[in-house]
Design a protein that fits this description.
The complex is a heterodimer. Chain A is mostly helical. Chain A has 11 helices and no strands. The longest helix of chain B is centred in the middle third of the chain and has 14 residues. Classes of the chains: A mainly alpha, B alpha/beta.
């Protein structure tokens, strides 16, 4: 009887499979570390170098006018206002257009030639370098209307548009077909179905996709270089006179061989990181909130 | 009432067999047959072929669906039951490449005539789907969606409709205290009854049901079946089901479909036999029906 029962040994065995498992675990864990190092270093250096001026002069750093390059001291107010206004205007242009475009592509255009062309162009445009967007707006807008914040907003909108279109179309794709059928079966028209069933169901994804596009645009420098000009005082109009933005200020200050300017540049960098971080957190919270309800 | 034999191969004569697991059905009395046949016609389907692109999925369906009756479609998977059902309120229009030949007359009007709007058709002919598909909205808003489409915005009117529909679907007592909570938090059986309530909230003339109980447990199924029997007093019901017992229990007439291979080797669905349920389950005319309901096939 005894020999019929295998010895009951439940301890882990040393096998080749176990060894492979360990090697792969170490490799994967190692790549996480390698990926994380530059990210952490960037954050650490931005906080270390920008933190001193930002937090030492809080909140004056965020509100005061920008001093002349060689003068020490705080002040990024015009740049923060500029970034918020220019990005805000770009959002007002790009998000409604992008969402409506995505609705057309997914709900109406389908696989028609025109829809496929637009979809393809949107995909290609996501890969176009942002400086090309800046040049394009410089030629068609800035040369005709002088340097102004609105030109920058247009350039950023060009940059955001394909991102919003692609993200929104993906979100519309995720809305189950059964919901559309349920609506049609009650005698709803297509427009009604899209507006009252499909869009609300996709809204959380569209909102977070759009906010990510906003965060991306807020950090862009190249499209603003030829379009908004430069100023050190507050300009609350997008349509009159030179404007400025955080990203443009980082560029301006960092290229100066003056410690005062460079310190202000780091401060601006930290302010920008915090701004985009806030936007990203908002995007995540909205997504999490909306998916929890489902 | 046997199907046009020009379209289907001549049926072999059914020999009497001892049925072991055939569903029990009520005895068929001549008076009952007369009563069923006397009901006014709702749908007259003639020579219906359904295409998906170049593929002819369903061929040569002829049948009559009568008022205030439950008509069941049975048959194995891929035999075209659902496809035919979705022609009855033009849901197939939503599938790219789908089209029909032949005609579907609804109270004498060709549903596929060029001047007929699919949206108007669907306002009169509701549909309940295989998987419960409540909108991601509150229970109240789910029911009120249809009436709102029809332009009813008066709060008291909507309240009445919501209560009445939920009562008809035997759901009111379970949900009356949480009308504002999300419909997605309900159980599967409740969701399906909500979908039925949502369909009858627009007071359709016909309710089409595509395997409404396939995702439900036996208790929820029994409730939906009770509900169907009550609803047929007011509505005409067409139900697709895989469950022969369900067809036998609930329906007045039954259509049996099968999938066949044509000469080119392409699979297609066809209607084999359409008759009073009691006859289909006790004395079918076609051997294929006999084999199916006795469990020798499918």
């Amino acid at each position: 009887m005894q020999e019929l029962v295998r010895a009951l040994d439940l301890r882990p065995r040393r096998t080749w499979r176990g060894t492979k498992n360990m090697i792969m675990t170490v490799l994967l864990g190692g790549s996480v570390v390698v990926v994380a190092v530059p990210l952490v270093l960037v954050m650490v250096s931005v906080f270390a170098k920008g933190g001193s001026i930002l937090f030492a002069h809080f909140p004056k750093f965020l509100t005061a006018d920008i001093p002349p390059t060689r003068v020490a001291g705080p002040g990024m107010g015009p740049a923060i206002v500029g970034t918020l206004m220019i990005t805000g205007m770009a959002t007002l242009i790009a998000v409604p257009l992008g969402v409506m475009g995505a609705i057309y592509l997914h709900e109406y255009g389908g696989q028609s030639k025109f829809a496929r062309l637009v979809r393809f162009m949107a995909m290609v445009m996501t890969g176009v370098p942002s400086i090309v967007m800046g040049l394009f707006i410089y030629v068609v807008w800035t040369l005709n209307f002088k340097l102004q914040g609105f030109g920058g907003a247009l350039a950023l909108a060009c940059l955001m548009l394909p991102i919003v279109i692609n993200a929104s179309e993906q979100m519309l794709k995720l809305v189950p077909h059964s919901l559309r059928e349920a609506s049609y079966a009650l005698g709803a028209t297509k427009a009604r179905t899209v507006l009252t069933i499909v869009l609300p169901a996709a809204s959380s994804g569209i909102v977070s996709g759009s906010l990510l596009a906003v965060a991306r645009a807020a950090g862009e420098t190249a499209p603003l270089l030829f379009t908004i000009g430069a100023t050190r005082v507050l300009n609350t109009s997008l349509f009159h006179g030179d404007d400025t933005a955080l990203s443009a200020r980082i560029f301006e200050n960092a290229k100066e061989a003056v410690a005062n300017a460079q310190e202000r540049g780091w401060g601006a960098a930290l302010a920008l990181v915090l701004l985009t971080f806030t936007l990203t957190v908002i995007a995540r919270v909205i997504t999490a909130f909306a998916t929890r309800r489902k | 009432m046997v199907v046009d034999s020009a379209k289907t191969p001549a049926p072999t004569v059914a020999k009497p067999v001892v049925r072991t697991n055939a569903p029990s059905v009520p005895e068929m009395r001549p008076s009952m047959v007369d009563a069923l046949m006397a009901a006014p016609t709702v749908y007259e389907i003639s020579n219906l072929d359904v295409f998906y692109g170049a593929y002819k999925a369903v061929r040569g369906v002829n049948m009559t669906i009568r008022k205030n009756q439950i008509t069941a479609f049975i048959g194995p998977s891929g035999c075209g039951k659902t496809t035919v059902l979705r022609c009855l309120n033009r849901m197939n229009d939503l599938i790219p490449g789908a089209r029909i030949e032949g005609s579907v007359m609804y109270h004498g009007v060709d549903l596929y005539a060029p001047d007929v709007s699919a949206t108007e058709v669907r306002r009169r002919i509701g549909m309940v789907f295989q998987k419960p598909n409540p909108f991601p909205k509150s229970i109240y808003d789910n029911i009120a969606y249809g009436p709102r489409i029809n332009g009813i915005s008066d709060k008291r009117r909507l309240d009445e409709i919501v209560e009445k529909s939920l009562r008809s679907a035997a759901l009111w007592d379970e949900v009356k205290d949480r009308l504002k909570s999300s419909a997605l938090g309900m159980s599967g059986g409740q969701q399906q009854r909500l979908c039925i309530a949502r369909t009858i909230a627009v007071e359709p003339e016909v309710v089409l049901m595509d395997e409404p109980c396939s995702a439900l447990d036996p208790i929820a199924t029994a409730r939906v079946e009770d509900l169907m029997r009550e609803l047929k007093e007011k509505y005409t019901i067409v139900i697709v089901t895989h469950n022969m017992q369900q067809a036998a229990r609930t329906s007045d007439c039954t259509a049996f479909y099968t999938a066949e291979l044509d000469k080119a080797g392409q699979r297609f669905g066809q209607l084999v036999e359409f008759d009073i349920t009691a006859k289909i389950f006790s004395n079918p005319s076609d051997i294929r029906t006999e084999n199916y309901i006795t469990g020798r096939f499918g």
